[in-house]
């Protein structure tokens, strides 16, 4: 049994006990009808007591419920303002009304305290935003006091303020850099106070309008500084050109200009003074300067391989009326020639390389016609042949590169590329055809015909060497020596007429078509032949060859008599034989 049930039992027992005592007392005092009457009155009193007590309790319950309802309504309102929600927690069945009322009162009290704090926070955020937006010139975000912003809205607003703060820091840094840059530009330009006054009038806020004004001022100053820089560079270039033309030797003035290296108004003034001084001197030496320009133009004409007709087109070159306009025309012509050469530098370099190779090829061809070239035993012929092959390989490649570059030029300029007034492609084609025709010409027709005296001297030299090997007596005269080389039925004049077929070396005999037959595989023909070659004259007076076989010589056709030359071994033994 619970405590409440026990108390109710005690109340019922106490009530019953008191009623019994009252009834007994009334029965002892009054007759039975009066006792019944008093019992009815006691019942009425008991009913009235319990009715009043119950009514008072019910009134108290209703009051508590009204308070709870009011608290719940206020809670809903506060929650709606603070959090945007209207969900109210229902009272559990086992929770008494008074307890629930106390809980609601506590909750509502907390919400009441939070509401002014929220409003104060919103007002503070509004003030921060107003300050930042006013400084940055940005549009503020809406933030109302009624209704109050939700917590997530406040979080987003705080992030917005953080971004504004970061933007303020960045703009402050940029503002400082801009102002420092403008100050440096003003110092370089040595500008008047107008620009500085304009800079001071610009507010130091961080609005886009301020930045636009500062950037506009910076751009204007940068443009002025760029113009100053270009003016200084142009003036310096003019001064250097005038120095070169005037052959300036005033070291003090030159050093003053060299020391003025900064781009400032002071440098401009120094250069302007020097330019004016040089121009005064220049007008006095105008004729000499124009003549120097003509020398340079002539050099560039040669470098760009201009023809006589192309040079005559520049009529100012041949004018004797010297003035500034004539000077300007010469300068423009020189600049055009340099630009033309620079644009086609690769073509000119390749063409010059081709010309060098052709010149070297002609030199090698001239060497191949030299009748004494076979006397060289140092491998020079092999080197020349190797160089000739290299040139033959390089020339087509160079001409192909020139052709490709010229085709590009023709596509761009819609005209041929001229060298000495002629199309370079036609010129190279004509030179190729000419060189091909020369290669097909027999070498015997290209060689120089020797004179009779030369042939006679060569014959005498060969005969002397041969007679020494054969042991010819010292007292033998030239007539006897010539008889050894003369075959029956021949005459010296016939030999002189065909002397172009002779070979000057005693160990070599080269046919007249040997230049055409020379190939890399025939290098062995350039090696010295053994000394057992027999030298003799045929019926036509030409020198012929015969090989010995164990010291004997075969009989040659035509009735010629062989020379009894010893073998190489016997020759060495004969040379070692002591004199009698």
TrEMBL record:
Q: Which Pfam families match?
A: MAP65_ASE1 (PF03999)
> Record's Gene Ontology CC terms?
cytoplasm; mitotic spindle midzone
* Gene Ontology molecular function, alphabetical: microtubule binding
Region entry Disordered, spans: 456-525, 540-580
Composition bias, Polar residues: 456-483, 499-508, 540-558
**Which keywords describe this protein according to UniProt?**
Coiled coil
The UniProt entry, under InterPro entries, shows:
MAP65_Ase1_PRC1
Q: Which residues form a coiled coil?
A: 172-238
Write the protein's name: Protein regulator of cytokinesis 1-like
Specify the species.
Drosophila madeirensis (Fruit fly)
Q: Where is the organism placed in the taxonomic lineage, from the top?
A: Eukaryota, Metazoa, Ecdysozoa, Arthropoda, Hexapoda
């Amino acid at each position: 049994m619970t405590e409440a049930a026990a108390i109710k039992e005690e109340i019922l027992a106490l009530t019953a006990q008191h009623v019994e005592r009252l009834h007994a007392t009334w029965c002892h005092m009054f007759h039975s009808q009066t006792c019944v009457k008093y019992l009815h009155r006691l019942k009425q009193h008991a009913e009235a007591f319990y009715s009043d007590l119950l009514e008072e309790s019910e009134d108290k319950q209703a009051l508590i419920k009204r308070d709870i309802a009011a608290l719940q309504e206020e809670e809903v309102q506060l929650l709606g303002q603070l959090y945007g929600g209207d969900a109210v927690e229902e009272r559990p069945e086992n929770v008494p009304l008074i307890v629930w009322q106390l809980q609601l009162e506590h909750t509502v009290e907390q919400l009441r305290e939070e509401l002014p704090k929220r409003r104060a926070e919103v007002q503070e955020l509004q003030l921060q935003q107003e300050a930042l937006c006013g400084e940055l010139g940005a549009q503020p975000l809406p933030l109302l006091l009624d209704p109050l912003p939700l917590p997530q809205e406040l979080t987003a607003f705080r992030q917005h303020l953080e971004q504004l703060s970061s933007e303020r820091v960045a703009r402050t840094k940029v503002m400082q850099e801009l102002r420092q840059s403008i100050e440096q530009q003003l110092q370089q330009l040595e500008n008047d106070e107008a620009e500085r006054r304009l800079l001071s009038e610009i507010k130091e806020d961080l609005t886009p309008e301020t930045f636009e004004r500062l950037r506009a001022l910076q751009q204007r100053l940068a443009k002025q500084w760029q113009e100053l820089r270009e003016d200084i560079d142009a003036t310096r270039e003019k001064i250097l050109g005038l120095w070169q033309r005037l052959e300036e030797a005033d070291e003090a003035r030159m050093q003053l200009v060299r020391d003025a290296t900064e781009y400032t108004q002071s440098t401009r003034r120094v250069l302007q003074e020097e330019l004016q001084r040089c121009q005064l001197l220049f007008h006095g030496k105008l004729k000499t300067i124009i003549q120097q320009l003509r020398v340079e133009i002539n050099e560039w004409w040669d470098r760009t391989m201009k023809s006589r007709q192309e040079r005559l087109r520049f009529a100012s070159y041949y004018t004797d009326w010297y003035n500034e306009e004539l000077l300007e025309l010469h300068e423009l012509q020189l600049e055009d020639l340099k630009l033309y050469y620079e644009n086609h530098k690769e073509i000119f370099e390749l063409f010059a390389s081709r010309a060098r190779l052709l010149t070297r090829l002609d030199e090698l061809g001239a060497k191949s016609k030299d009748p004494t070239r076979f006397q060289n035993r140092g491998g020079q012929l092999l080197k020349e042949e190797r160089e000739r092959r290299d040139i033959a390989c390089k020339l087509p490649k160079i001409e192909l590169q020139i052709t490709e570059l010229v085709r590009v030029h023709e596509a761009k300029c819609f005209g041929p590329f001229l060298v000495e007034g002629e199309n370079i492609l036609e010129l190279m084609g004509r030179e190729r055809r000419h060189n091909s025709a020369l290669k097909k010409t027999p070498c015997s027709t290209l060689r120089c015909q020797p004179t009779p005296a030369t042939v006679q001297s060569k014959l005498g030299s060969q005969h002397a060497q041969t007679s020494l090997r054969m042991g010819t007596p010292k007292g033998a005269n030239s007539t006897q020596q010539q008889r050894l080389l003369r075959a029956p039925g021949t005459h010296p004049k016939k030999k002189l007429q065909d002397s172009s077929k002779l070979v000057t070396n005693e160990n070599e005999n080269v046919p007249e078509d040997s230049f055409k037959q020379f190939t890399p595989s025939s290098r062995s023909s350039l090696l010295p032949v053994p000394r057992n070659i027999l030298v003799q004259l045929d019926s036509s007076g030409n020198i012929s060859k015969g090989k010995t076989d164990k010291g004997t010589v075969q009989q040659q056709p035509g009735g010629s008599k062989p020379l009894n030359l010893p073998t190489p071994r016997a020759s060495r033994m004969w040379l070692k034989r002591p004199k009698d």
